[in-house]
Design brief:
Layout: E1 5-15, E2 18-27, H1 28-52, H2 59-73, H3 78-93, H4 100-120, H5 125-137, H6 142-156, H7 160-175
Antiparallel strand pairs: 1-2
Helix pairs in contact: 1-2, 1-3, 2-3, 3-4, 3-5, 4-5, 5-6, 5-7, 6-7
């Protein structure tokens, strides 16, 4: 029923002893966006938890299930692709990979997630800056690294978090 409007009426909401009639107009699309938002917030919470938990492996099955649910609801949400890439990078940060081959595979998977997100929202500076992080770690991706840095600066150059990450990437590149 995409695009079809429907009406939800909530009755018997009490405020100071009185009854209020509350009308909420929504569309199928806005309900879907809300579902995606809620699932993605759960993913972000689990990613934050994965940073601080003692058992570094514990959060990844939960995160994987949440990502699968988010992709089922809508794979056309760039934030879902960003979170999927971030989950892969978190695996690397928590040292949950066992070999250099697996390390490169995880980087490639994260990069692929960011690229998919950029197909949907090419002006998203967070997708670009994360793609730059991945590209920096892959020596064969220098051209993609330069493009990612330029696009992150173009779309998010005034955002403090993007500026900070870009500064770190550029400092690391100068040391190479």
């Amino acid at each position: 029923m995409p695009g079809k409007s429907f009406q939800v009426i909530l009755v018997k909401c009490s405020l100071a002893g009185g009854l209020i009639l509350l009308l909420i107009w929504a569309s199928y699309d806005s309900v879907q966006r809300m579902r995606i938002y809620l699932v993605n917030n759960d993913i972000e919470f689990k990613l934050q938890e994965a940073k601080t938990t003692k058992n570094k492996f514990a959060q990844y099955p939960v995160i994987a299930r949440l990502l699968e649910k988010s992709f089922q609801i809508s794979s056309s949400n760039p934030r879902t692709w960003l979170l999927a890439g971030n989950a892969e990078l978190r695996r690397l940060a928590n040292n949950t990979v066992n070999s250099s081959l697996e390390f490169q595979q995880v980087l490639s998977k994260a990069g692929a997630y960011y690229i998919e997100g950029l197909k949907l929202q090419p002006d998203n500076p967070f997708l670009w800056v994360n793609l730059a992080i991945v590209s920096q770690s892959q020596t064969e991706q220098k051209k993609r690294l330069q493009k990612s840095i330029a696009m992150a600066e173009k779309y998010g150059g005034s955002h403090p978090e993007v500026k900070q990450i870009l500064a770190l990437i550029l400092a690391a590149e100068k040391q190479r």
